[in-house]
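User: I'm curious whether this sequence folds into something compact or stays loose and floppy. Could you predict its structure so I can see for myself?
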Amino acid sequence: MLDTVVAAETPEGIILELHPAGLPARFYAFLLDWLIRLVILYGFAIVARFLGGLGMAFWIVLLFLLEWFYPIAFELGRSGATPGKKTFGLKVVMDNGLPITPAASLTRNLLRAADFLPFGYGFAIVSMLLRRDCKRLGDIGAATLVVHQPHAAPRITLEKVEPVAPVRPLAPRDQAALVALAARAPTLTGERLDELAAIAASVSGDRGRAGGAVTHRVLGVAQWLMGRRT
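Assistant: Here's the prediction. I'll summarize afterward.
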């Protein structure tokens, strides 16, 4: 994933950082979706051979539906992504980071006809390479973004934190604060936990430092205070 970041503001005034997906990730997702549709069409074509002209008519209808409504159906789902995009950790959102709307999904997919010009999605490739937000023409017209889905940081399991003796005597109030931090640790994001642990880093001899290792030692002090010494 590139380091490109786009700031988006929600209607509530919250600033979000979105990571637009570049050409390689979107190409691999497109290729996988294309293969899925090809397998579906091939499988139905085998069945259609036994149905004669009626089977061919149904096959043509299926081809139309897969070409134009396959992405729309998945983009409007809970994941906001086709199977190809979901496999590569991508999703489609509005410019403000909110879930894509039906009108926007329909617009961005209808404009694939313009993106395809002059051939082989030439306009789409040029647009994505020239724009910082990696938008194709359909995304520009629909005010949408294809972004990398954020990966949730793994939660700390206190049972795996080794107890650490504090480097200085602690007042009862400080001991209670450390125990409370340890109790909240499984519910906090990794970034927030590191931030709070840095404030108490002096208890483990890490004053002025921060990071995952410091956080583990601070929580180790909390474990020691709660009576776990081995």
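Summary: The chain has a mean pLDDT of 87. The chain has ten helices and four strands.
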